[in-house]
Amino acid sequence: MAEPSDRILRDLQRRWRPDLLRAGLNPGPGPGLRVTRTQNHARVEATLLRWDGAPADWLANPVAPLPPLSNACIFRVEARHPGLPRSLRVAAEPPRSLARVFAAGDVLTHDTEFDARVRLTGDPGFILAAFNKKTREISRECVDAGLVVDGTLKGELRCERPASLVVWLQKMLDLVRRLAMSTDEVPPRLVRICERHPQPAARADALRQLAALGAEARLWPILRRLVVGPAEVQALLHPLVAEWLAAEPARVAELPEEALLAQLDAASVPVRLAIVERLAVVGTAVALPALRDLAGTFFERGGVRSAARSSLEQVLARTHDRVGGLSVVPEAESGLALVDDDL
Asked: Domain check: are 140 and 261 in the same one?
């Protein structure tokens, strides 16, 4: 490759600069070929490093006219954004074998092809939320071209035409803006993954990251929608919901019947009491077996047994469930009695 002499630089500027300016890029100071663009807090810069377009016969006799098709240039490029996470690393995965070897700290997006080609490290919750399909597509293109994210998006690009450089610089701006996503967007995006991702492993991973964010009140409204989601999501969500209900039993009023019943066995006495009382309002025939069990046990404390009897009566009255059911007997009598039509 040839270092760009003053003559070459002048000729390249003559060829490239008009197109770059028309594309909205700003020329840099000095005699070299350098352009910048700023867009929504993101800034990208390209500086000519080397000239890769000279045929060997011209290099042997550089006083000859510059060949008309020798436009290939190597640019140093860098895109910045103040919101780009400092811990985020995005780079191409070196091909070692047919199977990707995952190291400690690697974060998966659950896109098999992408994960096999791109290595991501950083905050797992942020990465899972930020790297949606479009972001993965742009990231893959950038790392395939030799660019990396490490504080900034940077590397070297070989371009033969101004239009090619313009496209790459815009692509870089787009990627750093995407990766500068606000942390406030992370929980809602993780919830969408839990609800909609086709792979159970991805939904479970998103839920783990939501749980890692802690029991923040702002997460409760979006997390409670998941308690009637896929079974594997419910299983992971169960301990988190239990933790939040233990801190604030009144939150049972925000959960559907299915979620209340799922929490009933493992809940503490105050939470169990709150659930039983809530079932008196929202319970259907589905809740009857659990209420009957609680109403018939002698081992419940904190008023749970009497509350279960009261809730059972209300649900029975609401559902008119007397087929194969049990009637509630006075507290002084032992256990439960069969109703007449069970005889």
From this structure: no
Return the SS3 of 167. helix
In a shared domain, residues 116 and 196: no
Pair (133, 255) in one structural domain? no
Which segment of 176-185, 228-237, 329-338 scores lowest on mean pLDDT? Answer: 329-338
pLDDT digits over 104-138, tens only? Answer: 578 999 999 999 999 999 999 999 999 999 999 99
Is residue 1 one of the residues assigned to a domain?
Answer: no
**Angle at Cα 172 formed by Cα 166 and Cα 177, nearest 5°?**
130
The count of domains in the chain is 3
**Taking a C-beta distance cutoff of 8 angstroms, is the pair 16, 28 a contact?**
no
pLDDT computed for residue 334 by the predictor:
39
What phi and psi, each to the nearest 5 degrees, are found at residue 39? -150, 115
Nearest Cα neighbor of 237 from 263, 273, 198 is 263
Nearest to 203 by CA among 245, 231, 241: 231
Best CA proximity match to 197, nearest among 151, 250, 133, 273: 133
The one-character DSSP state at 2 is B
Q: Are 109 and 165 in the same domain?
A: yes
Q: Are strands 148-150 and 118-121 parallel, antiparallel or unpaired?
A: unpaired
Token pair recorded at residue 115: 């994960």
pLDDT score at 172: 97
Kindly give the interhelix angle for 162-179 and 133-144, rounded to the nearest 10 degrees. Answer: 130
**How far apart are alpha carbons 173 and 141 in whole angstroms?**
13
Same structural domain for residues 254 and 339?
yes
Inter-residue contact 200 to 235 (CB < 8 Å): no
Shared domain check, 230 and 172: no
**Bridge partners, 213 (sequence order):** none
Taking only the tens place, the pLDDT of each residue in 149-202 is 999 999 999 988 888 999 999 999 999 999 999 988 998 898 888 878 888 788
Same structural domain for residues 12 and 95? Answer: yes
